Amino acid sequence: MPSGGEAGGVPTALVQGVRGADKASVARALNLVEDRRASSQAAIASLLAQLAPRDGVHRVGLTGPPGVGKSTLTSALALEQRARGHSVAVLAVDPSSVRSGGALLGDRVRMMFDPGDQKLFVRSLATAGDMGGLTQAAGAVVDVFSAAFDRVLVETVGVGQSETAIEHVVDTVCLVIQPGSGDALQFIKAGIMEIPDVIVVNKGDHKLLAERAAGDLRGALASLRRAGMRLGDSDWKVPVLVTSARDRAGIDALADALDGHRAAFDAAGIAARRRQRAAAWTQALFLRRFGEHGLEVLGGFEQLAARISEALRGGAPPIGVVSALGADLVVQLRSRGQAG
Amino acid sequence: MRTYAGHSTAAASNELYRTNLAKGQTGLSVAFDLPTQTGYDPDHPLSAGEVGKVGVPISHIADMNVLFDQLPLDQMNTSMTINATAPWLLALYIAVAEKQGVDPTLLQGTTQNDLIKEFLSRGTYIFPPAASLRMTADVIAYTVKHAPKWNPTNICSYHLQEAGATPVQELAYALATAIAVLDAVRDGGQVPADEMPQVVGRISFFVNAGIRFVEEMCKMRAFAQLWDKITLERYGVKDPKLRRFRYGVQVNSLGLTEQQPENNIIRIVLEMLAVTLSKDARARAVQLPAWNEALGLPRKWDQQWSLRAQQILAYESDLLAFGDIFNGSHVIEEKVSNMAAEAYKEVEDILARGGAVEAVESGYLKQRLVESNATRLAAIERGDQIVVGVNKFRETEPSPLTQDLGTAILTVDPAVERRAIDAIEKFKKQRDEAAVQRALDKLKQAVKRGDNVMPPSIEAAKAQVTTGEWGAALREVLGEYRAPTGVAGARAAGTEDLARSTGKPISELRAEISRLEKKLGRRPKLLVGKPGLDGHSNGAEQIALKARDVGFEVVYEGIRVTPEQIVASALEEGVHLIGISMLSGSHLELIPQVVKRAQAAGIGDVPIIVGGIIPEPDARKLQAAGVARVYTPKDFELNTIMNDLVQLVSERAQSAHA
Fold first, then answer.
1. Are B262 and B399 in contact (CB under 8 A)?
2. Nearest CB to A102 within list B554, B569, B572
3. What is the four-CA torsion angle of A190, A193, A196, A201, rounded to 10 degrees?
4. Contact assessment for residue A321 and residue A306, using Cβ atoms and an 8 Å cutoff
């Protein structure tokens, strides 16, 4: 079955519903993009190809080690953005059990939300054993959300562990750490400081400790910058903030900082950034599915990157591109088999 | 001797109190309904179905006046089972006393006022842990000065055992709670250092007694020993009288069974004996549950049976005629000292984690309890822990006692709620709105400043502020809290066991779920939530844990959610099943609402399963309303339930394909 076009058989009403941020439609679209059956892939690609990011949408990833209060911070941030008049979608990613495949999801993320609020949507997703704390479907879920809501928040455990990590599916990465944990220094040592665009020291109710940790971080960032190390985007000075999600303190400043990072890009800039990140995400998905061997069959890294860029520019979604590349891979393998 | 009694209206309760006092009852025990316990008025959406259910609704000073009409408060000893809103109910009580012309220094009674166990088990908390502790400390500091005969807090280990605590955990967590409370008072600056021994002397405990007779008896003794040590070493209390472990006991409900429920009266008597025979650790009061608690609300006759058991022990036997007959027993002494040592180590561990409040916030305590309970349930399911009539000796003759229980169970007239809503509307119309606003502003400012919450609350009570308004004002200032569920991090026990009833190993259930995942395109997803205000979350937690363990993706919503929230989550999360747990008796009001809302949201085809204390006729009604399955305490085999869930999702996938 060819991908794209009408073949996916996605009802127009569903596409319209997502664009109009109708909750039932968004939920149905998410059920579809999470579907891993081969028979559903064409429909997914077709749906995503018909959905474009809303004007001005901002996709933010919140990441950091377990236990730093990311869920509470995410909830507080979502409420702050609602108060500023934005519609908000939250994707909460939780790890699955390796042994049973089961997972406990969204533990208390949504609890402070008004269930009647039509402009606030929460979905949780299990990692299903995927690396980097993000599941394969995450990119597609974010794309559906981007077509329907003004702000998309992705909350996930773990940071910078592999190429399928959070930075590929969002515009702004916010690293959340705890005061006194030594996390910040470890991140710097591990070179993870290339990722975050905003750093938050949460649980600022240990106020002195938090301020000290933030100060240390700012110092470390400044000296690294002086040493010529690239930190996030070259001309963006990574802000370090202190919040207490529990007491709702510092949340407005965080929302401002995130908006500030988004505002640093013009329309063309954000589009280019998203394309670049979508390419990396597509590559990761491809490697995950077809491995080094697939890469080699399609002519190596540069060849793959070029094809991905071209396909993405043509409007195909990452999942669709991977499916198309996979189909091509099968053809090539078959012709190799005939040649041999 | 008291009976825990609340009636559906203040007037009915007042009548009951006066009858009981006339019969020679010595104290009053007030149970409040869940809206009152959680700071809502009857007209709040979360109060729907809960008004007057598990106790009396008290919304304002006029209700409180009716509740204590013709009861001179200087002569009463009033025990109030009230926690998050304890400052408010005590404020109303003091305001009524003043109106009666009674000097508050003469007031005697108890406010339960232990929030830690609310976070861990009972669920009627409102504010974050630190703020909650501050409220507790405020009540203590206020009463020590202004109502010195009042017991401002009753630290509850009872509910910890109900949540699955082992005896050592029960000891350790309750003592760590007491330390957190006393530290907060000591460091709060409201009580001078030389008055701390008096504060320590006013702390009392509410303890559980379970079926393991010897262990429970030793637990009582270990409590007394450890309390003596802590009060001496940590708070420097010199007077041994002020170091005495003052406690009351309610015997265990968790172990009461729905199967062959008549056996419960024997369990209750054994549990009571463990308390009675701990004579050196003198309990001040013993309360017994009714034999049929696991089936529904007990009737008067059911309560009488428990009372008679107590009276036979006290008046027919010679048990009370001797001193502590276990004094000098090596076996008991060794067990007590081991238990005390183990518990003390755990107390130190909690202190090293920053104390009880920190250990609540981090989820540590809750997680440990959830694990202990999972271990207990798995042992029962495996047959390692024998429960007569449940996993052994299950054959039974038809019981004449339970034949008409379905019709005999006490229910609350639904008109009570409507009348309460009408009444509060009327009440609000007659009062001075400006005075109400002034009182609320004053209250908020005082709490913001860090002043004691009691004086402005008493003023607010007199200004005719309502319970819901007091709750909302403090929620605004202190914030509202969702406690860690303890489920996410908990290890599940007994997962590799054979499911006896289905004969299916867990691995097969997991394989079935994986097959189902292939069929559905994604892993089966289950939502678990508790609508209403009831916070007893054991059942919901264990289902969530087990479901994850067999391979479901579980969205655990926890307690106190509305039908609207459950349906909104189910829709947004795209779940394949909705699981609801309810123990407050409001299932007939709330669950059909979930069904209707799910249909309206276009997810009416998602099967809904219900677990809780649901009498058989109600179960039939729920199924008629569209509920797929109803589980009650007799369905203790979680693996069987899991098997059902898998089948339900599978059937639905089938019919969607057809």
1. yes
2. B554
3. 90
4. no
Classify the phi-psi angles of A104: left when phi > 0, otherwise alpha if psi is within -120 to 50, otherwise beta.
beta
pLDDT at B330: 96
- Is B534 a known active-site residue? yes
Is residue A107 within 8 A of residue A98, CB to CB? The reply is: no
| Residues of chain B contacting A24 with CB distance shorter than 8 Å | 571, 601-602
pLDDT tens string A99-147:
677 787 765 445 577 888 999 999 998 886 554 557 778 999 999 999 9
In three-state form (DSSP H/G/I as H, E/B as E, the rest C), the secondary structure along B32-77 is: ECHHHHCCCCCCCHHHCCCCCCCCECCCCHHHHHHHCCCCCHHHCE
Q: How confident is the model at residue A71 (pLDDT cuts 50, 70, 90)?
A: confident
Which helix (H) or strand (E) segment holds residue B88: the answer is helix B86-99
* pLDDT, tens digit (0-9, with 9 covering 90-100), for A230-241: 555 557 888 999
Contacts of B602 in chain A (CB under 8 A): 24
What ipTM did this prediction achieve? 0.89
With the C-alpha atoms ordered B466, B469, B473, B478, is the resulting torsion angle positive or negative? Answer: positive
Give the SS3 label for residue A302.
Answer: helix
- HSE-up (13 A, CA, CB side) for residue B526: 30
* Secondary structure tally for chain A: helices H, strands E: 11, 8
Q: Which of B530, B546, B576, B587 is catalytic?
A: B530
Q: What whole-number distance in Å separates Cα of residue B178 and Cα of residue B155?
A: 7
CB A61 within 8 A of CB A166: yes
For A200-209, A259-268, B343-352, B535-544, which range has the lowest pLDDT when averaged over its residues?
Answer: A200-209
Please determine, for residue B481, whether its predicted confidence score (pLDDT) is greater than 60: yes
pLDDT at A68: 83
Q: Which residues of A touch B569 (CB under 8 A)?
A: 110, 115, 122
Q: Residue ranges of the alpha helices (H) in B362-432? A: 364-382, 405-408, 415-430
Q: What pLDDT does residue A6 have?
A: 44
Q: Does B367 touch chain A if contact means CB atoms closer than 8 Å?
A: no
Q: Taking CB atoms and an 8 Å limit, are B522 and A31 in contact across chains?
A: yes
pLDDT at B572 over 90: yes
pTM across the whole model = 0.82
Interface test with A, best of B46, B132, B553, B566 (most A CBs within 10 A): B553
Residue with the larger pLDDT of the pair B486 and B324: B324
Mutate to test the interface with B, among A32, A111, A145 (most CBs of B within 10 A): A111
Is A97's CB within 8 Å of B549's CB?
yes
Among chain B residues, CA nearest to A205: B130
Using DSSP bridges, classify how beta strands A151-157 and A88-94 pair: parallel, antiparallel or unpaired. Answer: parallel
Please state, in angstroms and as integers, the Cα–Cα distance from residue B254 to each residue in B6, B165, B257, B292, following that order.
Answer: 21, 11, 8, 12
Report the SS3 class of residue B207.
Answer: strand
Using a CB-CB cut-off of 8 Å, the residues of chain A touching B484 are: 107-108
Min Cα separation A120/chain B (Å): 10
Task: Mark which residues 266-325 of B lie under 8 Å from A by CB.
Answer: none
- The mean pLDDT value of chain B amounts to 90
Number of CB pairs < 8 Å for A and B? 112
Residue that has been written with the tokens 């976070």 in this structure:
B119
pLDDT tens digits, one per residue of B509-524: 899 999 999 999 999 9
Contact by Cβ (8 Å): B546, B492: yes
Alpha helices (H) along B521-615: 538-550, 563-573, 587-600
Sign of CA dihedral A29, A31, A36, A38: negative
Q: Of B457, B468, B455, whose CA–CA distance to B427 is shortest?
A: B468
Q: Amino acid identity, residue A163? A: E
Kind plus residue range of the DSSP H or E element containing B155: strand B154-156
Residue appearing with tokens 């309810």: B582
